[in-house]
Amino acid sequence: MSHNVLLEIGLEEMPANVITQSRIQLMERVEKFLTENRLSFGQVKSYSTPRRLAVLIHDVAEKQEDQEVTAKGPAKKIALDNEGNWSKAAQGFVRGQGLTPENIYFKELKGVEYVHVDKFIPGKSAMDILPQLSEVVTSMTFPVSMHWADHSLKYIRPIHWIAAMADEKVIPFKVLDVETSNTSRGHRFLGEDVVFETALDYEAALSEQFVVADNEKRTALIVSQINALAEKHQWTVPLDEELLEEITNIVEYPTAFYGTFDESYLAIPNEVLMTSMKDHQRYFYVMNQEKDILPYFISVRNGNADHIENVAKGNEKVLVARLDDAQFFFEEDKKLSIDACLEKLKSVTFHEKIGSLYEKMQRTGLFAEVIGKQIGLTEQEMTDLKRAADIYKFDLVTNMVDEFPELQGIMGEKYALLFGETPAVAQAIREHYQPISSEGALPTSRVGAVLAVADKLDSVMSLFAAGVVPTGSNDPFGLRRQAYGMIRIVVDKQWSFPVRTIWANISSQLHEKPELMLSGYAETQADALSFIKGRIRQLLTSLQLNYGVVDAALGSTQDDILQIIEIAQVLEAESQLETFKSTIEAVQRAINLAEKASDETSIETDKFETASEKNLYDAVLSVKERYADFSVRERYAALSNLAPSIHEFFEENMVMAEDETVRNNRLSMLREIAQFALSFADLDKLVIK
């Protein structure tokens, strides 16, 4: 007969941002525990609230599966003495297995006979195994942990109770000073302690004490309550998924309600209103059918509807206080000028070894000019780019951004338009922060995209020059994210972006403006450019390309980001074709032998001894004349077309001929092929099966 098993860890209120992952972690650890202990099981349901993490496992086997195993012992020559009797080694081995020498038989492995025994291991009762769930509880890990009392265990929050049951029985174990039981706790203010008659009573019994333990049901309840309010008042309420998850994780018994604020606050930019409500107060903002923000908000109480009007009024007071601040900051900021803000930036340090934010903007402007010319911006776009680069950080010293840092760039666009800048310049100021997360939205305008790339490239190159290099999880300036964002923008815009060439042009411009040149650029540029190339690996890996293909593309002498990515995609596609193996084997062989070639030798056609040498030379010459103009796919096709001639060459000629002149001539021809190949990809990195 199978068991239904409950494990609930009762805690002080946990931070909302760790609850979902902790719930999933507990479920996965319990599943792993049962699997490793050979206890079969059925459906596993996880639960979480701010005060609990729980799993309910259906149909857990009554006992472990029996095992029949074969154990290997010492070699026959060790197991038997000179008289054919069992040695102490053999006797000790079978004794350790709980058997006798009569159970021994010999089995040959790699030409040597070894002692073997077969033994039957009966499965233990589930009730003998389940108390070890204590190890699951103590093995949990969290982003932030704490000690409490005089305990050595670190946990997300102090453990107050543990409910552990198999059907109607308590699974006995102890964690610190907390012993398991069949009891839990209801809602902190509305409920009472709960006694479970059986494990399957878990969800229903908690519900009677104002705890909706199922996080999915809590979410659905919140959504239905918000939708009911929206329908009643003919509102549109955007349901932000992150906010919805956060609210789900801070309540046990949700009740949605709405509040209001004075219409005069609607003069504040929408982004400020949304941030005040969503990020600071965990409110949903309300819109009409035309998507205009209305002077209402929706919040969710952790409790029932009793005295909900008083709760709404309290929340209104809190929000109005924040909106008063925002309104004041907005009015004060309108009295500023961009020039005054830029002057302030001269005294704001970006990094002590790099200089001020104002100096960073100047360097970024130089970077942007080089990149803008590289990707072919129009004259008007270059004008807009220069203006945007001159001012794009000005909003950092405004009152609004000081109070709401998450609005940097957004308020820059708002204020730029307010102060008379063109829409293109204002848009670029906002877009230069994008993407703000690894897979976030990208700039849509070309000017904004160039400014974003320039700003990120300056951050990487300058911080590397200052010795601020990401190590392990330590990346305080987010350089990995910035470099990856730069790659994504280039790919999205399909720009030719030879990063070493672009950096050489930037470096040349910096030498003409020594006040912007950093002393560490020269010695760190190789590492910084390699770091950027490493972010290409991240992108290619996300496309689920073969690791060998990724290594080959990144090993290319090519430094155009777009072409490296296309090389990987071409290799991945071609690797599915029958001709791929023959092509790569031929070129790899040529590359390997070409390493023996001297740079001082050249191909002399009068030294050819066979027709295959002449044929290969003609084929190489034909490719060489056009190779620079080939697309990525055409370059691979050229190498593929060379493969038959390379195979014929190797079949008919001894490359390492005794005659040094002949040998050098053949190696020189292979060196030409290797140069073509390596400019395409490091094909030696490919594993051909």
From TrEMBL:
User: What are the EC numbers?
Assistant: 6.1.1.14
Q: Under which main EC class is this enzyme filed?
A: ligase
- Residue intervals of the DALR anticodon binding domain: 585-675
State where the protein is found: Cytoplasm
Q: Name one GO molecular function term.
A: ATP binding
User: Which cellular component, as a GO term, is one annotated location?
Assistant: cytosol
Reaction(s) catalysed by this chain, per the record, are: tRNA(Gly) + glycine + ATP = glycyl-tRNA(Gly) + AMP + diphosphate
Q: Which keywords does the record carry?
A: Aminoacyl-tRNA synthetase, ATP-binding, Coiled coil, Cytoplasm, Ligase, Nucleotide-binding, Protein biosynthesis
Its domain of life reads: Bacteria
Family matches, as InterPro entries: DALR_anticod-bd, Gly-tRNA-synth_bsu, Gly-tRNA-synth_heterodimer
**Coiled-coil region list:** 570-597
Name a Pfam family for this protein: tRNA_synt_2f
BP GO terms, sorted: arginyl-tRNA aminoacylation; glycyl-tRNA aminoacylation
Instruction: Give the quaternary structure.
Output: Tetramer of two alpha and two beta subunits.
Which family would the database say this protein is a member of?
Belongs to the class-II aminoacyl-tRNA synthetase family.
Q: Which HAMAP family does its entry note?
A: Gly_tRNA_synth_beta
**Could you tell me what this protein is called?**
Glycine--tRNA ligase beta subunit
Species of provenance: Desemzia incerta
State the organism's lineage.
Answer: Bacteria, Bacillati, Bacillota, Bacilli, Lactobacillales
Its gene is glyS
